User: Fold these one by one.
Assistant:
Number 1:
Amino acid sequence: MRNNRSLAELCAAATRRLIGVSTTPRLDAEILLATALNRPRSHLYTWPESIPEPELADRFAAWLERRQQGEPVAYLLGWREFWSLKLEVTPDTLIPRPETELLVELALEPLPMNQAVAVADLGTGSGAIALALAAERPQARIVATDQSPAALAVARRNAVRLGIAHVEFRQGDWCAPLAGEFFDLIVANPPYVAATDPHWRQGELRFEPPAALISGPDGLDALRIIIAQAREVLKSGGWLLLEHGYDQGVAVPALLRERGFSEVTDFQDTAGLSRVSRGRYFHF
């Protein structure tokens, strides 16, 4: 059936359908509709009375149906912006979150602008953190690890498309692919959701890879492993920065101190929630 509804009508109807599904129903509707039209969102406001071609309206309708079932917009479109970088994302990778930009900001602080420092990003997923750091520190040597070959394939494609050549991607668990090398800084956004937390089976999280979300009964398994392993591959005085759950702002700094890290600090995100812990390790 040919669509006879204008862009304004389509967007309004879609917004109503997404209320209760999304926290940003109007924004989601506009992004999906504009992308289906291969136009910027401003087009919807400039030409609100125009009627899209049937095949474009059908594409939008199909995406809207999937979004109504809870599928994230990033997976529908196949990309997400992070640190002003347009990144490919797939169900093999975690969707980069705005709050993770705090991890990038803090990681950049101790890294000189024009110096050949060595940095590792553990569990890189789509490559978001590694590529953001690489974009800001062109002299750095960056190694990004992930246990998932599928995720690494996405990260490599992102690096190629963005023209970033000084990131090396290696397969393996956490610090294992770094054995025999030493780094000035290690950064990680590991899984930190407790297996007993019911939220990872609900809403949009249902569509993301469980291995990138779940980490043991208390959510700290991966963080414990990384903190223990990082000491073996950090240069003396090197930094470890870890994203963690909002309720782990006491536990993670405690784990860092137990493993001999000093200058331990926990940081809050823009919502005032505990988000990143940082520590420094010295070899004696």
Number 2:
Amino acid sequence: MPGSANLNIMLKAARKAGRSLAKDFREVENLTASMKGAGDFVSKADIAAEEILKEELTTARPTYGWLGEESGGEDGKDPTRRWIVDPLDGTTNFLHGLPHWAVSIALEHKGKIVAGVVYDPSKDEMFFAEKGGGAWMNESRLRVAARNKMIESLFATGLPFAGRADLPETLQDLARLLPVCSGVRRWGAAALDLAYVAAGRYDGYWERKLNIWDIAAGTLIAQEAGALLEGVDPEENPLESGNLIAASEPIFSQFSKIVRG
């Protein structure tokens, strides 16, 4: 399971940020949070974790560009490479004391994601992949589920909150999907949803209106584990649109047809 120097830098940074978040998570009742937008909270822990990631990654690779959820984007001297970082995917879970959240780091090269790390400190599960090198969770190689019947398959999505305009679409999705599958989960962390598709825990995942830092690492991990991944509109780039469908190959056609209506 050898990794590149860049991947090792990413793994180290994710663990360091994860330790900081885990410490704050144990004292979650003492955290202060401010409103960043409707239903979207940002905490001191979130900002501190991004500062750790930025220091670790930009110190190791000072010429690379940067895009972080909290700090925004910066061009690097090397215009072909960029870190894409979500320091705390699942912030609302974190602030409510729910142990389901993750650190997400992706490396983009010439517009393509070439390495991704999603770290869940609560369970000490490190999901990672490099382009062409397969996907892993800790020491174990990941493969998507082999189930080929929709009625036996479990799916994940996000549910619109706080008056978001895509609620009617999502309700229509659920009305079509729930009668023909074994269930749908909404756990509130897109990066982990994609990692769970890679691990075979979910058979498929779909969501709309995501940000690139939510999904950049997870999309590569899922694909390297054998998942098919497309935009909800098959002509769109899901990293640009934020609308995606991911599933194992045996059920992708059936699943995507249902989501697309």
Number 3:
Amino acid sequence: MTETLLDQAWRDCEAAPEDTAKRLRYYGRLLESELVLLLEHEPVGEHIQPKVFDLEDGRIVLVFDSEERLTEFTGLPSPYAAMSGRALVEMLAGQALGLGLNLGVAPSSRLLPPEILDWLAQMVAERPEELTSHAVALHPPKGLPEALLLALDQKLARMEGLARMAYLTGVEYDNGTRGHMLAFIDPAPDSEAALARAVQAALGFSGVEAGMLDVTFLPADAPRAAEFARVGLQFDLPQPPESRTPDNLPGSDPDRPPRLR
């Protein structure tokens, strides 16, 4: 079976077990992955019931990073719900449940105890702070670690339809401080909070001491947007197809998990 991005991230961790940066990037990859959760039975309306296994060290649920791997484990088609790792962590936090990931079917096979899930949920629950200073000058970004740029690129590649593009620049504020800013161009209505949290997550799990990265939102015809385009590093966000058939089945939206029973 083809090695997945999650397999690769875990392999990097195994190769350097004391490398905190690689471990953080692994957890970031886990949160970004689309996972399938093994269920006790088919969903009932919007509610799901994960299949719980009692082990010596506690109770766990099982997830896999593909339907094929779930079927390889169970030996036959089984009921499941699909969701992002982030949504799964938020759903399981505080439930005293561990997580069995790709058990016995992949290089990334491992058990995550409840305290790891609670820590991850706390990480993704943090909210960005609003700026009080104003940008007075922009310049090309300099000195940012490659790991952070890669984390941003991977994160924004999952934010389909939330903005047209983004520009990363250096910035100088009216209080004399300097930093970096990411400007989202033509954000979708009510998408600002989700985009800001995505950037914060990329920072938190990039595994580098990158300092603060500020975020702003601009329409494409704003005068400042042209300045960002002139000096900034561009990130293109994927756009939705022209038409899409809605799917209301439980678990069909990776970031909106069904309700637990």
